[in-house]
Amino acid sequence: MGVLDMSILKDLGNLQKKIIFYLAENPKQHKETIQKKLEHKYYGAVLNAVRRLEKSGFLVSEKARSKKNVKIKLYSCSEKGVFYALIKNEKANVLKILENYKDYRVVKRLREVCDMLGEEVFVKLLRFVQPFLPLVESLNVEEACGCAVGYALKHLEKLGELKEVIEKSPRAGELARKWGL
Question: Where are the alpha helices (DSSP H) in the chain?
Fold first, then answer.
């Protein structure tokens, strides 16, 4: 099995995936809110899943105060979590995720790609680059993104129907130069 065939997230359970997908579109949420919105029966399972995701770098937290003035943590996706949600969640509201995390450097670059290619083509491109998820573990998210987009732009023949759209995009060459491809 080659590097491109592996999934770095094969150990993530359904609950963990749901949490990442939910937080990608709804950042800065408390564990109880996550549990309610996902309609999950057991708070303990949500608590453990959130802790594991934070420890493994898919989520980040910030301290806040509840309405009752109690210290709580609000959770959002890290760059790694955003990248995962964009690539793996076929029902994702891509533009909403890109807007929610627009301060992340890699998201800014992904937004540039989306704006250049259009949302429909961008989503298809995201599905095409799924095999590059393992690079997130060995590199950082931005480098993995650059490799994935670079691979796609240099191997247009493998993109099938996307090839024509990207070749016709007047800004695809600009993107390649900007990312040093």
Answer: 14-25, 31-38, 43-55, 79-88, 94-100, 105-117, 119-128, 135-138, 141-154, 161-168, 172-178
- Give Rg (Cα) of the chain: 17
**Average pLDDT, stretch 38-57?**
94
Are residues 84 and 22 in contact, defined by beta-carbon separation less than 8 angstroms? no
**Greatest C-alpha distance within the chain:** 58
Tokens of 25: 């579109």
- Other Cβ atoms closer than 10 A to 173: 13
Give CA separation, 27 vs 20, 23, 33, 97, 158, in Å.
Answer: 10, 5, 11, 9, 35
As to burial, measured by CB atoms within 10 angstroms (0-12 exposed, 13-18 middle, 19+ buried), residue 86 is buried
Q: What's the mean pLDDT in 8-24?
A: 84
pLDDT of residue 143: 76
SS3 39: coil
Burial per residue of 18-45, b for 16 or more beta-carbon CB atoms within 10 angstroms, e otherwise? bbbbbbbbbbebbbebbbeeeeeeeeee
Amino acid at 130: Q
Mean pLDDT of 83-89: 90
